Amino acid sequence: MNIVIVGMGEVGRYISDVLVKEHHNVVIIDSDINALTHAEETLDAMVLKGHGANLNTLKQAKADEADLFIAVTNHCETNLLAAIRAKEMGAKKTIARVSEEAYFENERGMVTGTFGIDLIINPNALIALEMHKIIRSAHAIAVEDFADNRIEMIQLHVDSSTSVIDRMIKDVRLPSNTLIAALVRDNTVLVPGGNDIIRDGDELLIVGRIEQIPKVEKIFKRERRRYTRRVIIVGGSDVAISLAAALSRDHIEVIIIERDRERCRAMARELHHVAIINADGTNAHVLEEENIPSTNAFVAASQEDEVNLMASLLARDLGAPRVLALVHKPDYSPICERLGIDAPLSPRIEVAKQVLKYARAGQILSIAPILEGQGEFLEFLTPENSPIVGKPIKQVGFPSDANICGVVDASGAFVPRGDDIIEPNDRVIVFTTPEHRQKVEAFFKAK
After folding, report:
1. The domain 228-351: what is its CATH number?
2. Is there a contact between 295 and 232 (Cβ–Cβ < 8 Å)?
3. Fewest CB within a 10 Å sphere: which of 13, 154, 270, 345?
4. CATH topology classification for 355-442
5. What stretches of 213-361 show up as alpha helix (H) in DSSP?
6. Is the pTM higher than 0.70?
7. What is the pLDDT confidence band of residue 156, given thresholds at 50, 70 and 90?
8. DSSP letters along 25-73, please?
């Protein structure tokens, strides 16, 4: 693919590196000569100095011939204008990174089709969504989201407290739009059939529409509110506000610690059921007063990485059971792991994940391995004339050692049944094992 990337910040560098390694033809635009020099020395890509929204610069970059145009500078207006102009010039797909909440009406952090741009991404909302998912699923062994966070997989342990033990899978009454995709027994992943029996000690990988997953957890005696009652957030960033609002809607007690008084007042006007404390979140005495061990999760979400690292380290030492940290600089992620921070989360990684799905359209959109690679969830975009489209799923001869777990079409996301029909350009989530991936891929290739 011919790809033009505007902006060589943390996000742009990461995306460029991945796309070059995947052998795409990449053109990089930036006004900073130092950023371009570094890109030229480390990447096999064409570099171009100029303003990303300037028509002459876009012509030099041949934006009109781009299969994918990506604008990810730190300036929202530049990204929007660049993507709009590239689309008008003839770029096939355009993506813009925008942090302003005014452009977004949903909570998924992405909108499509606005101003003619194919995808507008809000990195702050994406990070808040990821943090929310991790916190509210603290009792799960693992959680993965697919289809722009509309379909979720959760891995649950089966014990004597549940009523599904010694029952066949076909006899387990799950909520609509949910499915048992896989079963883990004795550390071995199995793709089950309806007649397979669930045993005490098994782990189930259950997939469904994201709003249905809490109902599944209730069946397995894993109700979320029992496990997450209280969350402390340090920092009054946009990420913190989005996360606090989402947790508050789940009836979870939320406390935000922010040292800027005016920011505290602004948050208090917006977050009516959240406690706002004007204090320094890196002060051990402040954290001790908030009784850190009694909280279910501690989140460091200020704009400064150093503050987040210090606050996380203090919270861990004070007995926080789970610590999440917002990390912008890529060099800090390994440090977080060495410090024992459970989940360092990076905006550049979250944005890149969405961008790379577009770069891989027509192929596998994403791969989520589980259990050290024993199994994997694959997300496809179905091309026209592929064997999977145009007839009921039960008639296509899909491999028995794979499960179609979810479909996203123009009407929304759903878990399909045998009579459902997959159409071109639908997004399909499949669970299988690595040795059977090639058989599955054959169903998603054009004839």
Report:
1. 3.40.50.720
2. yes
3. 270
4. Alpha-Beta Plaits (3.30.70)
5. 213-219, 224-227, 238-249, 261-270, 284-289, 305-317, 332-339, 347-359
6. no
7. confident
8. EEEEEES-HHHHHHHHHH-SSEEEES-TT-HHHHHHTTGGG-SEEEE--
